[in-house]
Amino acid sequence: MPLFQPIENYNPISKPSASVVVACKNEEHSLPNLLSRLQLQSCTDFELILVNDHSTDSTIYVMEAALAKFENVKVINAMGDGKKNALKEGISIATGSLIITTDADCTLLSDWLMMICSFQQSHVSDLIICPVQLFDNKSLFARLQAFEFTTLVAAGAGAVGAGMPILCNGANLAFTKQAWLESKHDLVDEQMSGDDIFLLQSIKKRGGVIRFLKSESAIVFTEPAKTFTAFFKQRRRWASKSPAYSDVQLIVTTCVVFGISSSILILMLSSLFSTQLLFVSISIFGIKYLVDVFFLYSVRSFFHVKHLWFYSFLLSILYPFYILSVAGSALVFKSKSWK
User: Fold this and answer.
1) Is residue 281 domain-shared with residue 147, that is, in the same domain?
2) Strand pairing of 73-77 and 47-52?
3) pTM across the whole model
4) Which of 80, 102, 173, 251 would you call most buried, defined as having the most Cβ atoms within 10 angstroms of its Cβ?
5) What CA–CA distance (Å, rounded) separates 313 from 234?
6) Is 213 domain-assigned?
């Protein structure tokens, strides 16, 4: 998938009208940074919609301060509970033909919006999956999170290139309002979040055009979880939505990942009692490790992956335990919030 650059004859006058929608819950510390980044966008002609999801801090005051900073901004308090309802209410009042969602704790580059609009202008799509990366705060835990998250984003991009999109992230997602209107009844309202994957599934089922925007200028950066508990709860929240997924390719992929992780873990434990199983376990682990490294090597320059061999090896050891513990926890504990 070649790196996308803005089209030479990009015309801001004929670009799609854009609405940036941000759902916020207790983001008084993060939101000012996002707003300052939006003020610095090279593309200034956009509608900004900020939705307050029952924040208990001063988020609403930060939002209201934005009324004086942007020419076209709307601030609303969500009527329903949860991120999905907040986004739905924000998107419903959006006037742009192209909706772009991001999160309050994200950092945007100055050409972020222009790059997305330029891509839509030259590659008309129903859904554009854009890249997300985690900041590297130099700790081993943060770097492992960033590496693991990069594998997910890269896998999602590869799946789009293979014609079978299965993953996206609402922290950096663009779609036409028309596509959303046609899909809004497929977003599984009983789930507190997961609007991004459910939207992808609905558009895919209808045969809509889904593309990945491979551009460094379109990358959105966000912070890794500060503690293991926060990280585990986030992943458990993601996993808890999986029973509601209907896309066959996503279900098969999830089962394959779970099956491989289970097999490796069972073989690792069984090899304590059998030298033959130890050889089989090492062989399967080695094959999977080399396949992962080969895949990530192909995207290392775009995602600026460092120490590929080391972090891939470390993650390969931890991954079976991580996958099974998250999956098991998701079955027992159902998430009741989106944060």
Assistant:
1) no
2) parallel
3) 0.91
4) 102
5) 23
6) yes
